[in-house]
Design goal:
It contains six helices and six strands. It is α+β, with helices and mostly antiparallel strands and 169 residues long. It has two domains: 1-114, 2-Layer Sandwich (Histidine-containing Protein, Chain: A), CATH 3.30.1340.30; 115-169, Membrane-bound Lytic Murein Transglycosylase D, Chain A (Roll), CATH 3.10.350.10.
């Protein structure tokens, strides 16, 4: 669980209409689908420019990508991550039942920490520059690119304000 701040005016639209990126009127579920994430089991609640996303997803990677895809939609300034990971819910339920005779809750799974860090792109950044800063080796940029696919379709198209997943090596 956590709250993530984003820059509401940042967005992939800075690349122009030829890149077929983001319509601000599209539902968040469509943004997720276009980025290879099934929105099934997710619920979105809006409070101004902040989105609360809740429900269950199949993996920690999907959870992290979903939060970042939503947060990187132009006009979204914050994402309150209330998602739980299905395997963690099952694991906690088993532990809870063994320890207390039942009642292990999903709330415990929701507190699971992210398995990666995030990085907000600054003006002049490249994936190589970010990789050098995060890993000490600019040649590791493909790791960052792969971790952010399909949100990133080209390693040369990142924009200031975009939030990226930086997996731990």
């Amino acid at each position: 669980m956590g709250f993530f701040d984003f820059i509401a005016d940042a967005g992939a639209k800075v690349f122009g209409p030829d890149d077929d990126i983001e319509e601000p009127t599209k539902p968040l579920s469509q943004h997720l689908r276009e980025n290879g994430i099934s929105p099934e089991g997710m619920k979105f609640t809006f409070s101004g420019t902040t989105v609360v996303v809740s429900g269950t997803v199949e993996s920690q990677e999907v959870r992290e990508k979903a939060v970042l895809v939503i947060g990187n939609v132009k006009g979204i300034s914050g994402v309150d991550d209330q998602l739980t990971v299905a395997s963690a819910v099952a694991d906690n339920a088993d532990v809870g039942e063994a320890a207390s005779g039942g009642g292990g809750g999903a709330g415990e799974a929701a507190a699971e920490d992210w398995s990666s860090r995030t990085y907000t792109v600054q003006s002049g950044d490249t994936l190589g520059k970010i990789a050098k800063e995060m890993y000490g080796n600019a040649g590791k940029y493909p790791v960052i690119f792969e971790a952010n696919k399909p949100m990133l379709k080209d390693p040369n198209k990142i924009y200031p304000g975009q939030v990226l997943r930086i997996p731990n090596l």
